[in-house]
Design brief:
The chain is built from eleven helices and two strands, in the order E-E-H-H-H-H-H-H-H-H-H-H-H. It is an all-alpha fold.
Length: 311
Amino acid sequence: MDPAKRAPAPGAASSAGGSIYDLGYRHYSGKRNGRGYAMWSLFAESSRSVWGFGRPMSAKAAPFILAGLYALPAVIQLAFSSVFSQRISAGDQVSLLTYSSYFPSLFFLVFFYCVAQAPELVCRDQRYQVLPLYFTRSMGKVEYALSRLGSLALALFVVLLVPVMALFVGDVLMKPDTIKAIGDELPKALPALPANAVISVGLASLSLAISSFSPRRAYAAIGIVAYILLMEAIPAAIYSIAQSSGSWLDKLFLLTPITSLNGSGYWFFGQPLNPQDFSGSLTSDSYLVAALASVVVATAVLAYRYRRISA
């Protein structure tokens, strides 16, 4: 029989352009949860990834070691709270860590946390070219960026919150009346929640925006370090050299990412800025506005970067 006249196989629909075969795959007939559920799934997966869960032990080393080192001084103060209480009762002057001064004293550990974990969230997907698999489903590019941002911000908020809780418990245990101490310490500790939230979102948005421009984790980490160091050093150098030229030079400190976040925290606690730590005549109000503006700009850059990625 002539092959050109052979009849098509059963289940095949012939046409001038070819044949379509029904292989018998079962179509999905369940509930479709939409973009919200897709964002939540990626957020949950990212929250596990930023702590190294589901990965080898080496992936858990950096986040847990840095988080532990950041909380260690507060835990030590908690452990020796009874000793400090006796010294205070005896009239001795004891220098203790406070809610407002804790992050400015140990910010470099949180900074290293961002350097280690922000590239972990966004660089691998670009390097192994799996972003089209996310974007072909119900999740959009902006939703992907916001999910990653939310997971890193949550992780940073947890890192910042643990020592606050340790300080709160330690301060309560130093007082003879526990119930009264809780009522006295709670108003002092509550401003740490919004202050740490601003710091968390600020550092997360900035580090992810920089990391999203490189598929290599090493290059992204170097970019974060270089940007932070340059933006902290350049305004300080210009102000120290030409501060006699005019009072407007202190406005340059609004461009510093870490200093702005440090200064914004004092606004929530209602405390004046320490002249030894902050140069110029800027107030905590100005630093808070600068910190919120940096969050908006960094988030916009992050979203713009992923909108430009072809999928």
